[in-house]
Amino acid sequence: MAESEKPASRFSRRSFIKTAGVGAAIAGASLEAQEKKPETLGPDAATITLTVNGAPHKVTVEPRVTLLRALRNELEITGAKEVCDRGGCGACTVLMDGRPVNACMLMAWDAVGHEITTVEGFGTPEKMSAVQAAFVDCDGYQCGFCTPGMVVSTTALLKTNPNPSIDEIKAGLAGNLCRCGTYSRIFESVEKAAKTMAARPAGRTPAKKGE
After folding, report:
1. Residues 105-140: pLDDT tens digits?
2. By the 8 A CB rule, do 42 and 63 touch?
3. Hey, which of 97, 119, 155, 159 would disulfide with 148, CB 3.0 to 4.6 Å?
């Protein structure tokens, strides 16, 4: 066969270089996609940072650990109580970004990047919040297991509704159960706290007990 009659090659030096360049780009994109894969959680424990009562805390927990158990077992912040462990009693209520949530139904890992406030974040025995002081003054507790959750839910309620009616108080605390049946005193506590907060000048800090 004459030289001029030979079929033209399907590949040239230029097409080879182009093809090689495309292949390299695809390989690079694939590697980049692998690097950006979502982090796989578990089964081993890992260290995360929880912001609780305004302070960051590092804890090492498995992904299956709830926020409640991380608070109680890892940070020794025990105000939130583990009672039903099913989200039905409200004893474990904490605030997440200002909204009440059941800590027993939230994974600790899901609380990363959020502001968590427990009953300890509202005040101390020497300097109680208006809600805490009202529960003491009105005997809004018996065994005390439900009280931290009640205080947290009441605080959230009065933040959104400073002057609730009795029906609104009942609705606001509907997720919190008192096994001792001290509801009348609890409702009195909420009403007293609302009146105290309404009478307090803006910006004034709570007074110490007995002042």
Report:
1. 999 999 999 999 999 999 999 999 999 999 999 999
2. yes
3. 119
Domain coordinates of the chain in residue numbers?
A: 46-121, 130-199
- pLDDT value for 198: 95
Helices (H), the chain: 13-35, 67-69, 130-137, 147-160, 166-172, 183-199
Pairing of strands 46-52, 55-61: antiparallel
What CATH architecture is 130-199? Answer: Orthogonal Bundle (1.10)
**pTM higher than 0.85, yes or no?**
no
Q: How distant, in Å, are the alpha carbons of 4, 62, 162, 165, 192 from that of 14?
A: 21, 55, 76, 82, 85
The mean per-residue pLDDT over the stretch 162-179 comes to 97
The CATH architecture annotation of domain 46-121 reads: Roll (3.10)
What does each C-alpha distance from 187 to 17, 49, 101 come to in angstroms? Answer: 80, 36, 21
